Amino acid sequence: MGTMTTATYNVVLAVHYLLTIRWNFSERRLKKWEPLMLAVPPVVGLGVSLPQIPLDYYNDTNLWCWIKAGWEYEDAVQRTYNARWAFAFAPLWAFIVFITLAQLYLWYTVRGIERRCSRYRKFSSVREQSSQSRSVAQQAALYVMGFYATNLPYTVIAATQRFYNPHTTGGYLALLAVVVFAPLQGFWNLFVYRRKTIFVAVKNSYAQSRDAISSIAKDVRSSVAKDVRTTLSKKGKAPNVGNGPDEKMDAEKDPNVQCSDNTKDNSLDEEKAKSAEDIADFENDGIVLPGERDPFIPTHVSEVYAD
């Protein structure tokens, strides 16, 4: 029921396009036909589904409950297959052929309008003149391809009778194709009518992702470059040797620091040597420095002597 109802709704949609584009029906005029257009698809779906109940044609068909002879009715197998074509495949493909012809007629109509209008557009290029007909042809082709992709696999199985048998290896790929494509009629319709919006959204999402990745990479490069500059600047300066063992090791490895330390040590040695020479001169002259006393002289004598 669902398959036939969906196909009938698409037939009604194709008729709506014909009335609007080919016969120039106004919206007000279409409103009068709208209740009938909405009522026809459910009636058709029920009309091809309900007669199978009293005939006892519904049985398990691997994927769903559909027209199939039961195990106790082996003599009715051919009759049930004929019922499939009478109540399912024949009406379905009649609708698909009608939709295909309707789309071709729409393209032919638009192309004729463009040719008539091209007489008054002398300065427009041929590509601009045929842009609308190409757009209609592309839209119609994609719309029809959705029907063929959805219904062709199961129709081929029914025509060749290569049904899936779990006890053999035959028919599995065909059954897989049915499982994948049969439920996608609504998806194809959505893609056909919203594909430009989908492509723009995907393109914008890709651009945003690319910009975000570029920004992250730029931040990472900037951070790494900053760390490298900081490390190089630290190695280029003389560290404080007394701050820690690591800095001491760096100081020992750095020749500039070693030269600086050697210069400081030499200056200290020179000052100590000079002070020792001065003290020796004072001692040779018999002079005792303030704050010191001669250990061989009593305290009271040394104080007088110092004065």
UniProtKB/TrEMBL annotation:
Ranges in coiled-coil conformation: none
Principal localisation: membrane
Residues covered by region (Disordered): 231-307
Species whose genome carries this gene: Ditylum brightwellii
Keywords: Membrane, Transmembrane, Transmembrane helix
A GO MF label: G protein-coupled receptor activity
Subcellular localization, as worded in the UniProt entry: Membrane
Biased composition (Basic and acidic residues): 245-255, 262-277
Membrane topology label: Multi-pass membrane protein
Chain ranges passing through the membrane: 6-24, 36-54, 85-108, 140-160, 172-193
GO biological process, one term: adenylate cyclase-activating G protein-coupled receptor signaling pathway
Name of the protein: G-protein coupled receptors family 2 profile 2 domain-containing protein
GO cellular component: plasma membrane
Highest taxon in the source lineage: Eukaryota
